[in-house]
Amino acid sequence: ETVKSLFLSLEDPFEGVFYIGYVCRASNTGDFFYRSARDMGFLHETINANTFLPLDKNVDSLDTSLSQMSHQVGWPKNIASEYDLEILKVTLNRDNKELAMTP
User: Fold this and answer.
1) Fewest CB atoms within 10 Å of the CB: 12, 89, 94, 99?
2) Residue among 33, 22, 25, 30 at smallest CA distance from 83
3) Could you give the CA distance from residue 41 to residue 102 in angstroms, rounded to a whole number?
4) What stretches of the chain show up as alpha helix (H) in DSSP?
5) Is 91 helix (H, G, I), strand (E, B) or coil?
6) pTM, entire model
7) How far apart are CA 12 and CA 15, in angstroms?
8) Under a CB-based contact definition with an 8 Å cutoff, are residues 22 and 81 in contact?
């Protein structure tokens, strides 16, 4: 509801874009998330995280000394998950303006 409110406050709500990082740990949670978004008038597009985030997820040894920072940048070692991060681009659905414009 908060995201929709932000969209509806724009001069043209259909020009708004919201990016969200999403990790689905259970299929029923994912189903609920996508169904709720659709029912509120949102569309989503999955964005390849490697094109969105300027960090290499697979850097094994991260040297953060100043001399090496510009040469080797990656996710911190303490961030590990068996689940993949999804980046979603969320917009209002122009094809269902009545639903999309309902607060």
Assistant:
1) 12
2) 25
3) 8
4) 2-8, 27-39, 49-52, 66-69, 97-100
5) strand
6) 0.69
7) 6
8) no
pLDDT of residue 68: 45
Q: What is the Rg, in whole angstroms, of the alpha carbon atoms belonging to the chain? A: 18
42 CB-contact burial (10 Å; exposed 0-12 / middle 13-18 / buried 19+)? buried
Instruction: Answer with the residue of higher pLDDT: 23 or 93.
Output: 93
d(CA 49, CA 4): 24
Query: What is the tens place of the pLDDT at every residue in 31-89?
Result: 999 999 999 999 999 988 777 766 665 555 445 444 444 445 566 666 666 777 788 99
**Sign of the dihedral defined by the CA atoms of residues 45, 32, 50, 73, in that order:** positive
For residue 1, pLDDT over 70 is answered with: yes
In sequence order, the β-bridge partners of residue 46 are 88
pLDDT at res. 38 = 92
8-state DSSP, 30: H
Report d(CA 34, CA 16) in Å as an integer.
Answer: 19
